[in-house]
Design goal:
Distance between the termini: 22 Å
Strand order of the largest sheet: 3-2-1-4-5-6-12-9
Bound molecules: beta-D-ribofuranose, calcium ion
Oligomer: single chain
CATH class: Alpha Beta
CATH superfamily: Ribonucleoside hydrolase-like
Number of strands: 12
Order of helices and strands: EHEHEHEHHEHHEHEHHEHEEEEH
Radius of gyration: 18 Å
Number of helices: 12
């Protein structure tokens, strides 16, 4: 399957990229960058670092640094990603450079030169590039097979609570208007939210971290180092973004429910919340038919086996 990865690397985005590049079922056509976990330039450098590490030549294009409403998308620092997005390890600057084309135009070009349903987009950052590309050329956007978006906290499982605010997940919170555009685009959208990515069965715990350290290959050292901060701060690492890539390879890793999701764009305390009306006794209106396929359960063991084998063991 041909994929475009739209991401904000970011530790777990970097792992998602490694997983995609090491999976023979996927052909990565392009990596497009959005700001989020770190600045647009840091995120771009981080994607290029991963491509050099794995030895893959895939075009990387820079996209948006501001949200649809014009706010900065980037967090200057987080406990998981640090200042530079990869845990402040002072990794060398890559030789490879980004393309001069804008991310949105690269996505459009790739879709134009492929058939209907040939390309899946996996978006693991704020949805700004994706929303803007849909607005720019909706006819071309209709050629997408599926948009798999890591984002949202749907309050369906006990893990589906916010991480950026009590009710909002990071990627949606950074640009709720973009998420609303994508969710309501009538394209085939699947949301891999915290309901599944915060399920402890997919966590990389201290013991697994030790195993990764013991592997002692170039990639395993990189992986162990970039997740170290999270293991030290929280005792585990949640591989949110790799799960989004994993389901493009094996959709049966998750249970999916088609649901109508509304994105809160106004609330003082609830901006970025992804809302599902669970009131079974209220008849749904015509315009409230399902718009998003929401992941509601995950086979943690099978996912971790895939992750370890493809991201750590064989490389
Ligand atoms: C999401 O937010 C980012 O910090 C991660 O890279 C992931 O995409 C999890 O809420
Ligand atoms: Ca991300």
């Amino acid at each position: 399957m041909k994929v475009i990865l739209d991401m904000d690397p970011g530790v777990d985005d970097a792992l998602a990229l490694i997983l995609a590049l090491n999976s023979k079922e996927l052909e990565v056509l392009a990596v497009t960058i959005v700001a989020g976990n770190t600045s647009l330039s840091n995120a771009t450098i981080n994607a290029l670092r991963v491509l050099e590490l794995i030895g893959c030549d895939v075009p990387v294009a820079m996209g948006e640094s501001k949200s649809i409403m014009g706010y900065e998308l980037a967090m200057p620092f987080t406990f998981i990603h640090g200042y530079d997005g990869l845990g402040d390890l002072n990794l060398p600057i890559p030789n490879k450079k980004a393309e001069s084309i804008h991310a949105i135009d690269l996505i459009i070009d790739k879709l134009k030169s492929h058939s209907y349903g040939e390309i899946t987009i996996i978006a693991t950052g704020p949805l700004t590039n994706i929303a803007k590309f849909i607005i720019k050329d909706y006819e071309v956007a209709k050629k997408v097979n599926q948009i798999i978006s890591m984002g949202g906290a749907f309050n369906i499982t006990p893990y589906g609570i916010g991480n950026q605010t009590p009710v909002a997940e990071f990627n949606i919170f950074r640009d709720p208007e973009a998420a609303s555009i994508v969710y309501n685009s009538r394209l085939n959208v699947t949301a891999v939210g915290l309901d599944v990515t915060m399920n402890p069965s997919i966590f990389i715990d201290k013991e697994m971290h030790k195993k990764i350290l013991e592997k002692d290959t170039k990639t395993s050292k990189f992986v162990a180092n970039i997740i170290k901060r999270s293991i030290e701060n929280y005792g585990f690492f949640a591989p949110h973004d790799p799960l989004a890539v994993a389901i493009s390879i094996d959709p049966k890793l998750v249970k999916i429910m088609p649901l109508h999701v509304k994105v809160e764009t106004k609330g003082e305390f609830t901006r970025g919340q992804t809302i599902i009306d669970k009131r079974w006794w209220v008849k749904k209106k015509e315009d409230e038919k399902s718009n998003v396929n929401v992941c509601v359960d995950v086979d943690g063991k099978r996912f971790l086996d895939m992750f370890m084998e493809r991201v750590v063991e064989n490389w």
